[in-house]
Each structure stands twice: as C-alpha cells, then as structure tokens.
Hints:
The structure holds 2 protein chains of 2 kinds.
Chain A: E1 4-5, E2 22-30, H1 35-46, E3 52-57, E4 63-71, H2 74-86, E5 90-95, E6 101-112, H3 115-127, E7 131-135, E8 139-146, H4 148-158, E9 163-168, E10 172-175
Antiparallel strand pairs in A: 1-3, 2-4, 2-5, 3-4, 6-8, 6-9, 6-10, 7-8
Chain B: E1 4-10, E2 17-23, E3 27-29, H1 30-40, E4 45-48, H2 55-61, E5 68-71, H3 75-89, E6 93-97, H4 101-104, H5 107-115, E7 120-126, H6 142-146, E8 152-155, H7 162-174, E9 180-186, H8 187-191, E10 193-195, H9 215-226, E11 231-235, H10 237-241, H11 245-255, E12 259-261, E13 276-279, H12 286-294, E14 297-301, H13 307-310, E15 321-326, E16 340-343, H14 346-356, H15 363-375, H16 388-399, E17 404-407, H17 411-419, E18 428-429, H18 440-450, E19 456-461, H19 471-477, E20 483-488, H20 493-502, H21 517-524, E21 528-531, H22 534-546, E22 552-557, H23 596-605
Helix pairs in contact in B: 1-2, 1-7, 3-5, 3-18, 9-14, 11-14, 12-15, 16-17, 16-22
Magnesium ion binds next to loops of chain B.
Amino acid sequence: MPQIQVSHSAQSNGNGELHLQKHTISILVENKYGAFIRIAGLFAAKGYNLESITVGPTEEEDISRMTIVTRGDDFVMEQIVKQLNRLIDTITVLDLTFESFVERDLVLVKINTSPETRSEIIQISEIFQAKVVDISPRTLTLEATGSQQKVDAIIMMLKPFGIKELARTGRVALKREFQGDV
Amino acid sequence: MFVHEQSLKSQRNGFPQSKQVMQGGKEMTGSEIFIQCLIAEGVEVVFGYPGGANIGIYDALYGQSTIKHILVRHEQGATHAAEGYAKATGKPGVVLVTSGPGATNTVTGIADALMDSIPIVVFTGQVPLKLIGNDAFQEIDIVGITRPITKHNYLVRDIRDLAKTIKEAFYIATSGRPGPVLVDLPKDIMAQKTVFEYPERVELRTYKPVLDGHMMMIKKAAEVISQSSRPVLYVGGGVINSNASDELRELAEKLKCPVTTTLHGLGSFPEDNPLSLGMLGMHGTWYSNIAVSKCDVLIAIGARFDDRVTGKVESFASEAKKIHIDIDPAVIGKNVPVDVPIVGDVKRILTRLNELVSPLKTEEWLNTISEWKQEHPLRYEQKKELRAQDVIQTIGKVTKGNAVVVTDVGQHQMWSAQFINWLHPRSLISSGGLGTMGFSLPAAMGASFGRKDVPVISISGDGGFQMNIQELATVVEHNIPLKIFVINNGYLGMVRQWQELFWQKRYSHVKLSNPDFVKVAEAYGCPASRVTHPSEAEQSIRQAMEYNDGPVFIEFVVAEEDNVFPMLPAGKTVDDMLDNPELFLPQTNGRTMFTLEKGKENYAANPSFA
Ligand SMILES: Cc1ncc(C[n+]2csc(CCOP(=O)(O)OP(=O)(O)O)c2C)c(N)n1
Ligand SMILES: [Mg+2]
C-alpha cells in the first residue's frame, strides 16, 4: 500500500497556507485499480494542500480507508469534499474536523548514538512511551506512536542527537463513538 | 448463436431503448461481447480507426450490420464526431481506437467532452495484459493520461468484467452530469472467451446522482424569487442536457423574468421571445451583462459561473441573491457564493418550482431593460466589403432556426452566437469550455449521423478548419449533406483581436498563409465555391441549403481586421465593457459610454488576465 508522508512542515506550494486550519478527512474508497492515484491526482490537479495521505485495508475486503490531512479555508474545504465525493470510486467522505476523532501517527526514527548519549535517548523514549526496536554500536532505532503533536514532539527532542533516518506513516484516524472525555 | 433473446431497457436521458440481444449460455470472445454490448445499449454509430491492438474488435465488426462504423481520418475527428452526435441527439457518442497513438489522439476530444459535459464513451485498444508495463510496441498508459480528463475510466483486466464495465461506462457517461468515460481493452482479454450476459442495471454503491432537488430548498428559492422585482434567469447547457426548455419557458413567462444564456444555453430559450436577453459574458450582449449586474435575484440554472461569463467574479451580479440549480454539487458555490443551492435534475426541479411561484411585478425592470436594448443593440454596420457578420446573419435568416449549426472556435464562433437567432435546443453545437479549434467539421459530421430532421451546418474559421480538415474525406465518402462554411479572414482572428486591442497591434504570428480552400475541397471531392461580395452571400447560402445530394463547401472571404463587440475584457466588470466603436451613440440617460480607449487603459494596467 502506498504511503506518502510529506513531513509535518506541510507541503509548501508557496501560498503560505500554514495559518489555515488543518483538516483530517477520512475516505472510504473502493479497493480498485487506480482509486488511490485518482484521489492523490485530484489534490495535485486542483492544487489542494496535502500534508499527509495514508491508505490501508479495512474490515471489508473490497474497501480501503484513506486518511488525508490537508489545510484550507472553509471555501476550499467545501470544494475538496465535493470533488472527492464526485469521484466514482469514493464511498464516503467525512471531514473529521467537525467530529470528535481518535488519531494516530507512527514514526520510526534512527538516531546516531554514542555510549555517552545512549541512556539519555532511552530516557526520552520512555517519557514518550516509545520502543527501542533496533540497536547497533552507533545507532538506535525508536518506534513512537501517538497524536501528530506527540510524534512531532519526540522528533524535536531527538533532533539534537542527530537523526540519521526517519520514516513516518502520516495520520490515520477514526471517528470517536464515545462522546464524553476520555 | 442465438440461445434466447431478451429485451433490455435503459432509462438514460429519457431515451428508452429496447433492442434484441443475444444472451445467455453462449460463450463469446471479448470482441463479440463488445459488439453485443453496443447493440444492447442501442448504439447506432461508432466513430473509429483500427490498428494492431484493436484489430480483433474490427474483425468482429466485419460482416455485421447492426452497428454502423464510420472510419474517420484522424482519431481526434472521432472524438469530436462522437461529441457532435451526442450534443445533437442527447444520446452517447461512441469512439473506438487503437492503442498508443490512436489513444493519445483522442485526448483533446475527451478533454473537450469533460469541460462541456458531453456523454461519450471511448474504447481504446491496449497491448496484451501480460505486456503492460513492458514498453511494448504502441503501449501507452492511456488510463493514466486520461484520468484527470474523464468522468471515469477503466482498464479491463478480466474478460468476466467486460460486459459489466461497458454497462457502467455508458451509465456513468450519460447519468448525472454527463461526461466522457474511457474503457481500455487489452488485446488478449478481447480474444478470450466467456459467457455473455449483459447486466440489466448498474449497481454502483458509490455513484448515485441526486435527481430530485431538496424540497425545502426549492421552497426557499420560491420565497426568494417572490421578493424580487429585478430578477434574471441565467441559463446554461444543463437545461438542454436535461431537456428542460419547456419548463424553463414556463418559469420565465410565469415570472415575467428576462432570460440570458451562456454559449451552451443558446437555444434553450427562444430568442424571439421578448424576455430573451441573448448570450451573456465576454462577448454577450451589452444589456444582458448590465441586467445581470443590476439584478436583485439571479436564478442560475445548469450553468457554472465560468470566468468567460462572470468577468471579475466579485462584481458578478453583486447586488443579487443567488439561486443555483445544478446536477453537479461541486459546481455550486465553486466560483460564486450562493444563497440557495439546489442539487438535482433541472427538469424535475423546475417542474416543482413552477408550481410554487407566481408572477412578479417586473414591468419597470423590463422597461429599463428594453431601454438598454435600444441604447446598445447587437448590431454591426454593413459595408462594401463582405463581413463575417453578414455571412452569419444571413445563415440565420435563411435557416430561420431550422438547422443544427456547429461552430469552430474564434471570432466566427462569437458572431454565430450573437447574430443567429437561436430558437431551439440542440441547434447550436460549439466547443465552449476547452475552446477547441478544429471542432466544427468533425462534430458537424457526427451530428449529421444523428439528425436527419434538419440540415447541419459547419462554420469554421480559416485557422480552425485546417485543424481537422482531413474529415472532408469522411464527409465525402459518406456523402453527408453537410454545409461546410469557412469564414476566411486571413487571420487567427480572435487572437489578432486581442493583439489589436490589448497588445498594441503587435500582430505576432496570427497572419495565415492559406491554401486555396476551394481547390482543397474539390480535391476531396466536395463541390465548392467562393464568395467575396456581400451581394452574393444570401443566394449562395440559399443554394447550399437547398442542395441535398451531398456535402457542399463555401469559402467566404471576409474583412480581415474586424472585431467582436461588445467585449467584456477578461477579469473585468461591466464598467469596462467595450462596445462597437463604429456605432457609438450619443450619451443617453446620463449613463457614461465606455470607450474603447478607457477599456484599453484598464487592460494595460493589468494584462495578466487570461
Ligand atoms: C487548438 C487550439 N489552439 C489555439 C487556440 C487559441 N485560439 C483561440 S481563437 C484562435 C483563432 C482562430 O482563428 P480562426 O480559426 O481563423 O477563426 P477566427 O477567429 O479568425 O474566426 C486561436 C488561435 C485554440 N482555441 N485552440
Ligand atoms: Mg480566421
């Protein structure tokens, strides 16, 4: 399954869109040849902002769920939702921003280590409940999951040690059923 | 081959069809199934071109007579022919081409059909499935290429999906907002066999166009309308696609509301009706644009607020509450904020709306409009020299609305929109959204296969005519009684006009060095003549209209440097509208006359508009 993560600093198209509200859109789409590319292509063709896009299987074999994080004013968001709905392969399009929802982002991050820094890094990882998934004399690979902000935060904390490589899934999200505080 | 016969019905666009179809039990090749599917869809004509990847399909076409196949001379011609057929009849146009270059040649026509909401289904041959991805001979990812310019497209990867896919393709092309659908057919799949069964109906959980407008919104629209004393109906091609001209007329006459149409809306409301304002927009009538700018309620129906219509969008109908009726939710609120959105089929919505509205007090408004009509009528000055407007006005005068006119793109297109009195839906066919030069001849040819009730006329400029001139061969081969008129001004006239008005007359690459069109037409086998004087125009047009034994060609040699007016320069407002400088009337009613000079200055200040 293709996954694109355009980093948390937003795909820059020079329009200074960072001040615009972030929206998380959840799409159920026919698991058909070309459906993913049709949706990604729509964002490119229409010049919509695209921060992250994930796609994966669902509980139903022939349906995939895509989660898209984008930015735009109300006008643009209305267009994005309408244009997505217009595609023949989309089943439902939901802007979760107007709902309460759970979201997760996962990052694998490989950090340069030395005997002096290793324990400090492990301490940081504990604070974020991250897991050490690989270790070598010069590197340490952590896995962290959580909200996008939490993942942003651990990356920021690890940066001073020297990040060698990083892979991030982008946001996946589901509408919350429980409507109270969690 | 017949096991049993079954009649199928398809309910699209109000064209019920029942055809006898081979079905059940029998194994057939993909190519045979393809033919049977077209028969089931009631397809009468296919425009196509053979090649290696679709040779099997052509073999299945051989020796059958139910489906007429027209061999075009260039695949672009096939797509425009299919568009012309679809526009003229309301039925889907069908194209069959080979892979690679055959497929890429269809791209312009497909894009044109998308922009103008025309139902066509394009079948492309493809290299065998197992070779896809190998850079095989004439392999091209046409599904990838056409993804952004089709309403939907398919690559058939399993013979068992073939019939269902074709059924879906026709359904998607013709339902909701119509548009082009492409089906890519790998050669090996088409040679495989399976049991043919044509599905009776399409079940797509993801695609169910809304047809009935929301009753609450329709009521709200009626309420907004009832408050209006200066209403305008702004009408587009959606009214024609929905066959809703009668309902529109009822609404306009009931409300006593003036009607202005887009290029594609021309013919949806008869222009001999006093409520008609003609076309609006960049080259629309002066009074339609002024009326829209001053109206208090704008009722947009099956139109999409295109920039060629609105000019500067913030100033478009800025005093008006806006009601927008359209089958495509995505066009509502896209360019202009709307007060009352109604999604659904225009005909159904207007039927309901008509029950809810009552006459408005619009006398004063209509009087004001008729003053504007007198101040700035659509007209031009006849001169010694033949002008394009003479030719076009005469075509209108001779045909009296009883013809299908297919224009190309450029000045002659706008003059056709202006100087022919449009009376009937589907009587004007033109490339609007994409503005494709080379559209007219093949589209008129396609229209001819669908319409035998009225003559079909192709009007092109000397530039655009040469872009699909090869279809003269097809027209002559089938002895189509097409009237082919070329308005030869020696220029890419519309571009020259912009260069004259906005680029200091720097005529960069717009002068055409043309062949002898009469000789060219004759070489193709088409009777041809040339008209150079105003005095000859009417008689030669009459003769052409009376000639029914085959195609006839006339070249009209007209004034070179002529301009289309009025003109609302791109991205501008009605205050910047340019009217015909030949005809400036004395200042009336204290309103300023907008001069060409002022318009040029305005434009020079910001020439970046497209
Ligand atoms: C395929 C294509 N290329 C370029 C253009 C840009 N264009 C618009 S109108 C025009 C001039 C058309 O000239 P002609 O066919 O002689 O018609 P006229 O304007 O002179 O009536 C051009 C080049 C276009 N619309 N389509
Ligand atoms: Mg010309």
